[in-house]
Amino acid sequence: QGLARGEGLALLPATRAMELRKQDYHMERPLLNQEHLEELGHWGSAPRTRQWRTWLQCSRARAHALLLQRLPILVWLPRYPVRDWLLGDLLSGLSVAIMQLPQGLAYALLAGLPPVFGLYSSFYPVFIYFLFGTSRHISVGTFAVMSVMVGSVTESLAPQALNDSTINETARDAARVQVASTLSVLVGLFQVGLGLVHFGFVVTYLSEPLVRGYTTAAAVQVFVSQLKYVFELHLSSHSGPLSLIYTVLEVCWKLPDSKVGTMVTAAVAGVVLVLVKLLNDKLQQQLPMPIPGELLTLIGATSISYGMDLKHRFKVSVVGNIPTGLVSPVAPNAQLFSKLMGSAFTIALVGFAIAISLGKIFALRHSYRVDSNQELVALGLSNLIGGIFRCFPVSCSMSRSLVQESTGGNSQVAGAVSSFFILLIIVKLGNSSMTFLAAIVIVNLKGMLRQLSDICSLWKANRADLLIWLVTFIATILLNLDLGLVAAVIFSLLLVVVRTQRPHYSILGQVPDTDIYRDVAEYSEAKEVPGVKVFRSSATVYFANAEFYSDALKQRCGVDVDLLISQKKKLLKKQEQLKLKQLQKEKKLQKQATSSKDTSVSINVNTSLEDMSNNVEDCKVMVSPGDKMEDATASGQEDSKAPDVSTLKALGLPQPDFHSLILDLSALSFVDTVCLKSLKNIFRDFREIEVEVYMAACHSPVVSQLEAGHFFDASVTKKHLFASVHDAVTFALQHPRPVPDSPVSVSRDLWPAKLFFFC
């Protein structure tokens, strides 16, 4: 037959014959439970790696590796391909600097600070990240979300002056700069500390829907905060929950007081910026670098503001003269640490989440690796050193990062070029209109506001992620940026718990002619094995869902296990009561018979001695020890021949239509004490209704945890745990559990059994 098959394959085309040979799959192995699997595979616990020992080792190689890890520039700069990358990095750095200049001025106003501090924040942190960062494409510097978070803190700790005197404005600005720089130092300390203890994984708790919903809500916050510049309104300072709602209501209330000149200026600037951006998108392939719309608008706004004297003729607010030169470093105010601790930690997490998410996107696109812990350290040092030089907290900008990549940037040399260009530009710009800067901020929110379309895409893709997005957005709008983030993280974690509490439970059936078992509700050809139930959960079993697991198991099996056990116990209790009553009745009759014999002996006193002796001998014969033993033996034989009355069949109760239950535990990633107790109870309850329970497909860590929790004992051994579901099903079919009234004993030896797989 094999020769004929080989000749038949030879007559077929080569590709078709190869496909048939691949499909001709055959394997034979012994049926394996956990004991035999451990013996066959020589199982042993994996050796524990104590990484902390390597951290404490001191050597020259260790010091050199640590230096290269903490200063990545020493790794990539000596290998920098000057001919291939330098021109692209120069053009990219120039493009980013041209874009970063107006954004720095505008985002400083967004943070409630004088514009020049936006330029400082565009220079110091960028250069520090050039030395310590691992991403080649992100553009570190001022960012709208970070600026509005800083602005909420500065306005709450250094509120708006009660009058418009210059002294109060100067004192207010100085106080806000001190708050912002101290906040930046605290943010840097948090980020550096988390990075050094390898806590970069904390950002994994900020899922992508959460980050996108949060940044969209922050964009709305930024948009509302710029309305006072667009309409030239004097608004009260609001902070805390519902501050955004109060600000919108106040804007609507004071809208009739807005100045027409300011509104026209903002509209013209916004239209120009939008047209330039559309032109850049359309001519992206033809232009060597994007048209610097923000810079051109800023230059035009400065010229128009100075030439037409907008401040005095049309009452348009202007930035004023920007001081030249750099500032000397200043120590942070330690007295503010306690007030800024919570906000600093929130800003540190948000800034790192935005930076690492963009960094990983670019790293995946250009095939290199980003170290999340080193990114924390680099971003933290940027904020720490920047705070000493009066910068406010920064992160990376999405729009500038895209420009840096699209204009040919290949490394952080582009960032260094942009920072030096900003250093040269810190000169007198003077008299630029705040309305133009507000227009720059609003137009640059376009990318984040586009994320509102996530609602439609997530509705189709994943409703749970949509719920996280909506809750994050609404919580951030209503509770402000700091409390909104906390509420969003708590909700997303609770949603994970709820989703694991209610996983998908299924009864599995065998796909014909395979060893594969699938949900019978989803696969029409998958059929349940007669006499065997296979149950699976899609999530691990732990304290939050162990009770749901047991309830779903009993429900899917189609047997009311608890009711059956209670009925069985009631009937057995009745039987015991009847037996007890019968024994009491027999004892009573025996006592009565004994008392009647005693009475007859006492009455016949005059009976002759010979008759009495005869009666006594007759009595001795009747109660001889031999007769007692024969009666006991006879009663024992009758009891052995009598069927066991404790079985469901003997009690007249319905029997389950299956004799074996198999728990597919392949989804378990860990077990806790509640899970162990739940599994023990499942074994106990189903054995009460004469169903044997087996487990299958446990991973090695779970088996180790079962052993550590003393799960295996005389009643549940490793012979009840099988390597696969098919092993367990095969064993259950070959060894159905004998009911108590069956005199047949079944051997539990598994090695003679064989498994055959054909495909």
Overview of this structure, please?
The chain crosses the membrane at residues 105-132, 179-206, 260-279, 340-364, 376-400, 420-445, 466-498. It comes from Callithrix jacchus. One of its GO terms (cellular component) is basolateral plasma membrane. Residues 566-593 form a coiled coil. With 759 residues, the protein is mainly α.
Write the layout of secondary structure elements.
Blueprint (H helix, E strand, L loop, with lengths): L1 H10 L2 H10 L2 E5 L3 H8 L9 H5 L4 H11 L2 H4 L5 H29 L5 H6 L2 H9 L6 E3 L2 H14 L8 H31 L11 H18 L1 H4 L12 H12 L5 H23 L10 H16 L1 H4 L23 H30 L5 H17 L6 E3 H9 L6 H13 L8 H10 L2 H4 L4 H8 L1 H39 L3 E6 L6 E3 L12 E6 L8 H11 L4 H43 L5 H14 L2 H17 L6 H4 L8 E5 L8 H16 L3 E5 L3 H9 L12 E2 L2 H10 L19 E5 L1
Parallel strand pairs: 6-7, 7-8, 8-9
Antiparallel strand pairs: 1-10, 2-3, 4-5, 4-6
Helix pairs in contact: 7-10, 7-16, 7-20, 7-21, 7-22, 9-19, 9-21, 10-11, 10-12, 10-18, 11-18, 11-19, 12-25, 15-16, 15-22, 18-19, 24-25
Keyphrases for this structure?
transmembrane helix, Solute carrier family 26 member 6, disordered N terminus, 33 helices, STAS_dom_sf, 759 residues, mainly alpha
Give a quick rundown of the structure.
This protein is mainly alpha-helical and 759 residues long. The chain is 62% helix and 6% strand. It contains 33 helices and 10 strands.
